[in-house]
Specification:
- By secondary structure, this protein is α+β, with helices and mostly antiparallel strands.
- It folds into two domains: 46 residues, no CATH class; 83 residues, RNA polymerase II/Efflux pump adaptor protein, barrel-sandwich hybrid domain (OB fold (Dihydrolipoamide Acetyltransferase, E2P)).
- A four-stranded antiparallel sheet has the order 3-10-8-5, with helices on one face. A four-stranded antiparallel sheet has the order 7-6-4-9. Strands 1-2 form a two-stranded antiparallel sheet.
- A hairpin with a 2-residue loop joins strand 6 and strand 7.
Length: 162
């Protein structure tokens, strides 16, 4: 955090707390605000285990090596038909995805199931809060792109609806 140039005034603690609350509520790791000469940056570190990284990076979403940028094009082309086959339901947050309400219970939906708008497709746990992900419209579940317990990122495709 920095103070305004030439100002002896302390930083507004309420603003810093509000920014920290935004980080906590959204799952973001960093936020920065500027007001005139005042610039406040609030960040938190996230520790990820090697096992979680291996689970979080399925082959179809792993970044292409820098030495072989041409190899990235066939992977994108291979993934394109699934995207065009229906509408993607994307994650609105960072968290852990669960396909059923409790371990051992039936999943919320399976490929081939008909769903109605607002029906829960899966749950994303973020900051120890379970967030149901509803179907944006009625349709048929074509494919579920994540596995139960997978860590997911904001905007990551979760389900394909037809």
């Amino acid at each position: 955090m920095t103070t305004p140039k030439g100002s002896g005034d302390p930083i507004d603690a309420r603003l810093v707390r509000k920014l920290a609350d935004i980080l906590h509520d959204t799952g973001l790791t960093e936020i920065e605000v500027e007001r005139g000469d005042l610039k406040i940056r609030v960040a938190r570190s996230v520790t990820v285990s090697a096992q979680a990284v291996q689970v979080a990076a399925p082959a179809q979403y792993s970044p292409a090596p820098v030495e072989a940028p041409v190899a990235a094009a066939p992977a994108a082309v291979a993934a394109a038909p699934a995207v065009r086959a229906g509408d993607l339901v994307k994650s609105p947050m960072v968290g852990t995805v669960y396909l059923q309400a409790q371990p051992g219970s039936d999943p919320f939906c399976k490929p081939g199931d008909k769903v109605v708008e607002g029906q829960t497709l899966l749950i994303v746990e973020a900051m120890k809060t379970m967030n149901p992900i509803p179907a944006p419209r009625s349709g048929t579940v074509v494919e579920i792109l994540v596995a139960d317990g997978d860590p997911i990122e904001f905007g990551e495709p979760l389900v394909v609806l037809e």
